[in-house]
Amino acid sequence: MSQQQISLPAKLINGGIAGIVGVTCVFPIDLAKTRLQNQRPGQHVYKSMMDCLVKTVRSEGYFGMYRGAAVNLTLVTPEKAIKLAANDFFRHHLSKDGKGLTVFKEMLAGCGAGMCQVIITTPMEMLKIQLQDAGRLAAQQQKPGMMAPTKLVATNTMLSRSYNSGTVVSAPRAVSATQIAKELLHTQGIQGLYRGLGATLMR
């Protein structure tokens, strides 16, 4: 079946399903990557990807590997919708007389679609990473001698403040993406949700 015969709603449904399946399959690996990257010198909790996943399951249960996945599962469909609709829009305006696009124009259409997609991708990644890193912070605090008392802050401090300032929080409670988003909007405005926008655009 040629791509022209597939309607936009069908593409959106296919893209949403594919995105949900993709998130479900690779999210534990992404969580391990985030926690390993966020470790600081002298505060290493995990030695490798497998060590991170094993310790996560032991301390947080099986679904601990999917901490923060709800954000991706919720936003992956609108993210794909924007990407596919924008790609069709740019392909339509770059094509001439219904002829096929050159490789360069295909790349331009994809680039334009990706730049539109970051409207959803950037805040989604910000919230996902902070939720993923919550388990690392909790495990780090359980290791004796890991932190100096001067680095501890109030128990009810939001995870978002810890992530953005580099401060390690004491006994972090379970937080939701909604709480983190509200805290970022309250303290930093809309810019808080779009930190790293330039890097996301380049990616």
Describe this structure in words.
This protein is mostly helical. Among the domains are: 1-69, no CATH class; 97-140 and 183-202, no CATH class. The protein contains 8 helices and no strands. The chain has helices at 8-37, 49-60, 69-94, 103-142, 159-165, 177-188, 190-193, 197-202. The radius of gyration is 20 Å and the shape is elongated.
What is the terminal separation in angstroms? 31 Å
Radius of gyration: 20 Å
Report mean pLDDT, rounded to a whole number.
81
- Total DSSP helices: 8
> What is the percentage of strand-forming residues?
under 5%
How many DSSP E strands?
0
**Percentage of residues in helical conformation:** 55-70%
Apparent shape: elongated
Name the helix and strand elements from N-terminus to C-terminus, one letter apiece: HHHHHHHH
Detail the poorly predicted runs. 146-163, 167-172
Main beta sheet: strand number and arrangement?
A: none
Q: Quaternary state, please? A: single chain
Helix-and-strand structural type: mainly alpha
Which tags fit this structure?
mainly alpha, 203 residues
Note the topology.
Layout: H1 8-37, H2 49-60, H3 69-94, H4 103-142, H5 159-165, H6 177-188, H7 190-193, H8 197-202
Summarize the structure.
This is Mitochondrial glutamate carrier 1. This protein has 203 residues and is mostly helical. 67% of the residues lie in helices and 0% in strands.
